[in-house]
Amino acid sequence: MIGKLKGLIDSYGEDYVILDVGGVGYQVHCASRTLQALPSPGGAAVLSIETYVREDQIKLFGFRSDHEREWFRLLQTVQGVGAKVALAVLGTLPPTDLANAIALRDKAAVARTPGVGPKVAERIVSELKDKAPGFADVDPAVVQLSGAIDNNRAPRPVTDAISALVNLGYGQPQAAAAIAAASRSAGEKAETAQLIRLGLKELSK
After folding, report:
1. Residue ranges of region Domain I (predicted)?
2. Do residues 77 and 83 lie in contact, with contact meaning Cβ atoms separated by under 8 Å?
3. Is residue 205 classed as helix, strand or coil in its secondary structure?
């Protein structure tokens, strides 16, 4: 199996690159973000490779890092997500942003991927939610709070405060992070108004 290719960019197609390795041209399918980051024809490139072997074809998928390739594999463990959808997701969200979105139960961020509807986005978030926090770079307290909100277990003042910030135009993950920080400083018995006030201070930092 091919795990890595190092060579020169020969040419580009709509969703692939031809990588010249010692005079042999390999057609490697990549996410749009990966293709945009590669050099012009003639430039050197290294790609982590996932090899798919089928009865009628061998297909190569290329990634800028082993980490990104792991996410490609992980996404395909979700029901209804194949290689094409997994590549589309990684073309929309870098691995860290994807991990953060899943950890924070941000289905809307995943659904921004072309061809990924709300149902598939929800499956990605729900089926990978226990795996994503390990890759995410967000505060574990925010991840915990997002999980509590998603499961209707968060205290009412907290959910009301987050809702208020969302109504003011802040994104759900941003609002959740601010209120998580506010809850830490105000304590468990804080009222909605106090949490909103402290949350807005967090957002203005």
Report:
1. 1-64
2. no
3. coil
Residue 31 is predicted with a pLDDT of: 93
Q: Which amino acid is at 3?
A: G
Bridge partners of 24? Answer: 21
DSSP H/E element including 196: helix 192-203
User: How much helix, strand and coil, in percent to the nearest 5, is found in the chain?
Assistant: 50, 20, 30
| Token digits of residue 158 | 């907290």
CB count in 10 Å sphere of residue 112: 13
Name which of 54, 5, 56, 1 is nearest 30 in CA terms. Answer: 5
In a domain, 133, yes or no: no
pTM of the model: 0.68
146 and 111 both lie in a single domain:
no
Q: Report which residue type is found at 25.
A: G
Where does the pLDDT of residue 166 fall: very low under 50, low under 70, confident under 90, or very high at 90 and above?
confident
Domains contained in the chain, number: 3
